[in-house]
Amino acid sequence: MSLSPVEGVALAEIESGGDAGAEKGFVGRSPGQLAWARLRRDRTAVVSGAMLLFFVVVALAVPLIEMAYGIGPREQFQNRLDGFGMPLGYAGGVTGEHWFGLEPGLGRDIFIRMVHGLRTSLFIAFAAAVITAAIGIVLGTVAGYLGGWVDAVVNWVTDLTLAMPFLIIALALTPTLALRFYGQREAVPPAFQIGVLVAIFALFGWTSTARLVRGQVIALREREFVEAARAAGAGLGHMLFRQLLPNIWAPILVSFSLAVPAYITSEAALSFIGVGLTDETPSFGRMIYRSLDYLQTDPAYVFFPGVTIFALVFAFNLFGDALRDALDPKSSR
Amino acid sequence: MVRFLVKRLFSATLTLFAVSVLTFLMFFALPRDPVSGMCPKNCNPERLERVRQELGLRDPLITQYAGYMKGIVTGRDLGSAQGGRCDAPCLGWSYVSNEAVFDTIARVLPVTLSIVIPAAVLWLLLGVGLGMVSALRRGTWLDRVAIGFSLTGASLQLYFVGAVLLLVFVYSLRLLPVPSYTPLLDDPVRWASGLVLAWVALAFLFSAIYARLSRAQMLETLSEDFVRTARAKGLAKPRVYGRHALRAAITPVVTVAGLDVGAALGGTVITETTFGLNGMGRTAVDAVRAGDLPTIMATVLIAAVFVVLANVLVDLLYAAIDPRVRLR
Q1: Domains and CATH numbers, chain B
Q2: Cβ of A165 and B166 within 8 Å?
Q3: Least confident among A318-322, B73-77, B100-104
Q4: What single string gives the DSSP state of each residue in B182-232?
Q5: Which domains does chain A have, with CATH numbers?
Q6: Helix, strand or coil for residue A256?
């Protein structure tokens, strides 16, 4: 008995579609359609999804927002600060003109800097999540399917990666790389800093996906359809990407959706300890770091970026959880 | 058991060896002149050259690495400018702080331990307890509160929570002193009051993750046959849940906890920065900023040792917790 990959997927559809189909006659629906229907019925998923959409739209529309708002991220409004560099007015200088107030000291507009920071942060997080997922999937499937010494090597490299203190290495590597490519005096362009950050996340972040995928592949490896394909003489590439991968996309998708907020957090944490992005590029972490100096005199300054990054990560986490429930054929919701 | 331990320790040593080589290459072999950072402001070429000589930077890399490793195992003789004889766990000499790196570590490691160990106890108790309660009371208001708590905690940032805590308890209410470290044996009250905010911040964020994880695990375990069997044969609920179910549910929690605690012991950079405490994390950050190579090496290595040891410990704990696990 040999099952083609298409039939393998079709079988999975029937299996997971069974319980829902029993209610209203037998309607063939793919797992994707089922998950989508569940997701739309889930109020949390809809609300958090809408929040995410909002954040993404804001990040994509940065130039438009900047035009409508009429203030650039590097413009300084010294005339609206008092003699000590503190913004005039309430809540850190919130006015109709400066929605979230001004930074103490430099007098830059907080709202427009946060909009820019959001774009940087989302870009880095998505790029890092895509790259780590790709590395993790390839290493995980290969290690899980081949087993033996390949598995042992991948496992050992995973352990090694986990043993390296991420923050310290990142902290040490970034300036060294910048010096290597740009020298002591040259200014390092933001694009390079962003690239380095993504590369560091890729270097350290693939382990969790690799472990997840490896576990799933080991569970699938001995199933009949895999055996059948192997007996029919399928090549390694076909086995990995045609037979195994389509059966484990659900956990991968969930781990991806939870990886994005983790990278948002990490990017902010790195900027917070002063690696990665410099003050030139607006970023949440940098803002919060600066705001700690003004904790007593201007608490509103820590409040705006702090709450926004919380809302962003919260929405991602909620959505990831809802996605997990929707994709899990065993879940009752 | 013994055989497993030997095998596991061997692979752990191999990992540490690889970490040390990688770190060494990363910092000593990269083209940046390692000395430029570790010399005080006005330093002439001759002094730079002497420092290079004393650090042995003119030697081939293998010799440098071997010297460093020999220092850790047997101690080594450093130049008179570096304090002369450096005893067994010799981690080198820092030109930036003008002391043996070992002394620096001995000073800052207790700070990190004092932050992490109480915080870890707090977060494990709180997290696993909350996860268990919400799994046992599934669907009630208690469960919903616990889920809300863990989702909030998992999305909050340490520096933000830290800032809010500082603002409320230190600057506004003035209930607590500005965070600082006092050795436990000198004055336990000041030790606790200076660190309690860091514990609370860490415990809040971490317990959220553990509550989530242990709730999911507990729910899965509760639907297993052996739990029903235990109840059916007349065992009391607390015994079934507290012993049988918890034991089965806690294994993945132990894995995650091992990694987290191991990583945290190597330095809680963000926590230490937020609360202005000078532990391993701050030391590593400062060393990187100053280009203080021997200190960077030492902090990375010690952090790796903690992670690797925590992993070995987790494997041993597995066997103690889960009777199905046989150590081979």
Answers
A1: 33-90 (no CATH), 103-327 (1.10.3720.10)
A2: no
A3: B73-77
A4: --TTT-HHHHHHHHHHHHHHHHHHHHHHHHHHHHHHHHHHHTSHHHHHHHH
A5: 71-315 (1.10.3720.10)
A6: helix
- Please give the DSSP secondary-structure letter assigned to residue A103: -
Please state, in angstroms and rounded to a whole number, the distance separating the CA atoms of residues A41 and B58: 68
Rounded to 5°, the CA angle A186-B292-B286 comes to 80
Pairing of strands B76-77, B85-86: antiparallel
- Give the minimum alpha-carbon distance from A22 to chain B in angstroms, rounded to a whole number: 24
Phi, psi of A101 (to 5 degrees): 85, -170
Burial label, A27 (beta-carbon count in 10 A; 0-12, 13-18, 19+): exposed
User: What is the C-alpha to C-alpha distance for residues B147 and B143, in angstroms, rounded to an integer?
Assistant: 6
Distance of residue B300 Cα from the nearest chain A Cα, in angstroms: 6
Q: Are A205 and A134 in contact (CB under 8 A)?
A: no
Reported as a single tens digit per residue, the pLDDT across A117-126 is 888 888 989 9
| Cα separation, A64 vs A53, whole angstroms | 17
With a pLDDT cut of 70, the percent of chain B lying above it is 85
Would you give the distance in Å from CA A61 to the centre of its chain? 19
DSSP state of B177: P
Q: Kindly give the residue spans of alpha helices, DSSP state H, lying in B223-292.
A: 225-232, 237-239, 246-249, 251-265, 269-275, 280-290
Q: Which helix (H) or strand (E) holds B77?
A: strand B76-77
Q: Which two tokens stand for residue A80?
A: 């609206």
CA dihedral over B232, B233, B236, B240, signed as positive or negative: negative
Q: What is the phi/psi pair of residue A76, to 5°? A: -115, 140
Q: If you measure CA to CA, which chain B residue comes closest to A271?
A: B270
**A289–B159 CB contact, under 8 Å:** yes
Q: Which of B32, B163, B300 sits opposite A168 (nearest CB)?
A: B300
Structure tokens at B231: 């109840």
Amino acid at B51: V
- β-sheet bridge partners, residue B99: B94
Distance from CA of B54 to the nearest CA of A (A): 23
Task: Report the C-alpha gap between B36 and B277 in whole angstroms.
Answer: 28
Return the structure tokens found at A316: 């991602």
| Residues of chain B contacting residue A274, judged by C-beta atoms under 8 Å apart | 285, 289
C-alpha to C-alpha distance for B251 and B102, rounded to whole angstroms:
36
Token digits for A130?
């895509």
B94 phi and psi angles, rounded to 5 deg:
-95, 125
Start-to-end CA distance of chain B, whole Å, equals 7
Count how many Cα atoms sit within 13 Å of the Cα of residue A256 in the half-sphere of its side chain. Answer: 19
Distances (CA, A) of A163 to A141, B266, B301: 22, 10, 9
Q: Three-state SS for A253? A: helix
Model confidence over B53-93: pLDDT tens digits?
766 666 777 777 887 777 777 777 666 666 666 766 777 77
In 3D, which of B112, B143, B137, B118 has the Cα closest to residue B282? B112
Six-digit token string for B71: 């220092």
Inter-chain CB proximity A272 and B273 less than 8 Å: yes
Using DSSP's 3-state secondary structure scheme, residue B174 falls into coil
Task: Give the distance, in angstroms, between the CA of residue B300 and the centroid of all CA atoms in the same chain.
Answer: 11
For chain A, give the number of residues: 333
Considering the entire predicted model, what is its pTM?
0.79
**Can you tell me the distance from the alpha carbon of B108 to that of A196, in angstroms, rounded to the nearest whole number?**
30
What is d(CA B227, CA B135) in angstroms, rounded to the nearest whole number?
A: 14
Whole-number pLDDT of residue A17: 42
